[in-house]
Write a structure and sequence with these properties.
The structure is a homodimer.
Chain A (H helix, E strand, L loop, with lengths): L9 E4 L6 H15 L6 E5 L1 H10 L8 E5 L10 H7 L4 H10 L5 E4 L3 H12 L9 E2 L2 E2 L6 E4 L9 H19 L5 E5 L10 H10 L7 E6 L11 E3 L2 H26 L3 H9 L1 H10 L7 E5 L4 E5 L5 H16 L2 H22 L1
Parallel strand pairs in A: 1-2, 1-4, 2-3, 4-12, 7-10, 8-9, 8-10
Antiparallel strand pairs in A: 5-11, 6-7, 11-12
Helix pairs in contact in A: 1-11, 3-5, 4-5, 6-7, 6-12
Chain lengths: ~350, ~350
Amino acid sequence: MSHAKPRQSIAVDAMGAENGTAEVVRAVQLALTEIPDLGQIVLVGKARLLTTLLRKVGLDKDQRITIFPATEVITMEDKPVEAMKRKKDASMLRAIELVRSGECGAMVSCGNTGALMAAGTVRLRQLPGVERPSLAPTMPSPEQHFVLLDAGANHSAKPIHLVHQAVLGSNYARVILGVKKPRVGLLSIGTEESKGNELILETNRLLKLCGGLINYHGPIEGFDVFSNEVDVIVTDGFTGNVVLKTCEGLFKTLKAYLKSEIMKNPVRVAGGLLSKGAFTDIKKRLDPDRYGGAPLLGLNGMVIKAHGSSNHTAIMNAIRTASLVLSHDLRTHSVNDIAEANRRIAEDAARE
Amino acid sequence: MSHAKPRQSIAVDAMGAENGTAEVVRAVQLALTEIPDLGQIVLVGKARLLTTLLRKVGLDKDQRITIFPATEVITMEDKPVEAMKRKKDASMLRAIELVRSGECGAMVSCGNTGALMAAGTVRLRQLPGVERPSLAPTMPSPEQHFVLLDAGANHSAKPIHLVHQAVLGSNYARVILGVKKPRVGLLSIGTEESKGNELILETNRLLKLCGGLINYHGPIEGFDVFSNEVDVIVTDGFTGNVVLKTCEGLFKTLKAYLKSEIMKNPVRVAGGLLSKGAFTDIKKRLDPDRYGGAPLLGLNGMVIKAHGSSNHTAIMNAIRTASLVLSHDLRTHSVNDIAEANRRIAEDAARE
C-alpha cells in the first residue's frame, strides 16, 4: 500500500453500504482488472477490517490500493446535519475531506444520500459560478441511454439553476455517454415553446442564449423521455425525482407481472424458456448497475453517489464513472462553460 | 329519434375525432349493447352525415339516439380561445351547451383538449366551492388501476387545489374503480412527512384535516405509483402530465423493444408464440382503451375528454364513464364533500 497520488486518486467510502464492506472490497478488486488507467484507490473505513478483507482476496500488498482509516459510519437512519456534527470520524466525511484537500480527485459512496449531499455541499462548496449541486443519474433506455438531472438534490428550482444543470449535464454526458454534442431537452408538458409554467418558459428563453455551449433541442414532453429525442434531460429536482422513481417502479412492476403471466401454465413456461435470450439481452441493456453511480454535479470536487443496495458490479461502475470524469478533466470544461453561460445571461439581463 | 331525456342524457361530440365521425357512430352502436341502463345519446355534429351513418348501421330510427345539429368543428390546430369565439356552431361547444342547459348530464369529446378545457371552464364554471378543474385519467396497472390527477389541466398548483383534487378524485375513484374507501396518496419525493417542497408540506397538513371525507394514506414516492399503495394519486398538473406521458412512453418503448428482441431469431419467435397468451393477457389488462376517457373533475357539469386518436372501443368506454358518473350521482357527493373540506380548512385557518 503506497501513498495516494494527488488528483488522480479515487476515495471509496468502504462503509455505509447495505451489502457491507466486503462487497465494496470486491468492487475494488473488479475495478483493478476492468477499468483501464485506473488511478490509486483509497479505501476509507475501519483499517483492520479492510486489511483482513484485502488479504482474503490477495490485495493487501497491492500498490494500487491505500487504506485511509475512519472509525465511524453514517447510517441510512441518521439525520444528515446531525450526523455530520456528531460523527466527525465517519468514513463518508473522511472521503469527502480527501477530495477537499486535493489528495483525491473524486469520491464514491453508497451511504446516506442526504448526508452525502449535505456534507458535500458544506465541505466542498460549489464549482465557481454554480449555485448548487444536482444529482445526475444515467437512465438506461433501449436505444440511447440518457442523463437526467436534477433527480432530487433540490426540491424546487429557478431558471438559472436549470441552465447550470444543462451546461453541467451536457459536459458530463459527453464523458459518460461518449456523445460529442449531447442533445439537451427541457422537460415540460408539451413540445410547444408556449407551454409550461413560468419556470419552463424563462428557462427555455435562457437556454436559447447558450448556443455553442450546449446543443439545445428545446422543450420535450413525457412521451419523448424514452424515445431517444435527447441525451440530457433537464428538470427540477421534484419532477426529476418523481420521474426517476416512477420509471424504476413501473419497470420492476412490469418485469414481475410478465414473469407471473409466463409462469401461469406449462406452454407459456416453455415459450418463455425458448425466448429467454430476448429477456437476457433486455436485462443486460437496461441493467441499472451499468451506471452504478450518479454524480452530484456542480460541487467543487467530484462526489459519486451509488445506490445504498449496490452490489459489487454497481459499485465498480461508480468507480468507473469517477475514473472517466477525472481522465476527461470534466471540472475544467464545466467551469469554463458555466462562466460563459453566466456571462451571456448577465449580458441579457443588462440589455432588458 | 326522440327528444333527449333531461339529466340522464349524454351528449357525444361526433366531430373533431381523428378517426372521423363514423368511428364515433360505431362507438355509440357498441355502447347501446355494452352499457346497461344507458341514457339517451345525443350525437352532436353535421345532421345529414350523422343520419347517413346511423342509417348504415340500422340505427337511424332508434329511439335511444338523438341528433343535435352543429356545422363547425374545432380542429387540433385551432387555438382554444380564438376557436371558441370564431366557431360558435362548433360541435364541441354545442355539446357543452347541452350540459349547461341541463338537457344532458354529461358530454364526451375526442376534440382539442385545450379548447375543451377553456370552453368547459367558461361555459360551465366550477362546481360550488372548487376553484378550477383538473384532468383525471385512470391509469392501468397490473394489480389495481388508479386515478391520477391533475394530469395537466393546470401547470402549477396551490395546496387548496390539491385538497380539492383529493376530494373529487376520491369520489370519482369510488365510481370508476368500484372501491369503497379509495386510498389517497400525495405524490412526493419521499414517504416521510418532512420531505417535499412547500406545496407538498402544506397540502399534507391540510389533507390530514379531511379524515372521513377521504382515506388519506399520506405522501408517496415514485416507487409507489405502480405498486398498489393507493387508488388516487394527487399531484400538480405539471408533475402529473410528465408522469402520465413518461409512463405511456416507457411502456410503448418497452413493448416495441421486447418485440424486436423476440423477432431476432427463429427460436425466440417460437418461444414468443408459445407464450403469446401471457402477452395477450397483459395487453388486455393494461389496455389504455379500457378507460377511454378522463373527466375534467371540478366543473359544474361532467365533461369527459377522450384521446384524439381514440378508436370506437375507447370512445365507447368514455361514454361508459359518463354513464357511471351520472348513475352514481357523483355531482351531489362531490359538492357535499367539497363544502365540508372547505369548512374544515377555513376553521383551521381561523384557529391559526
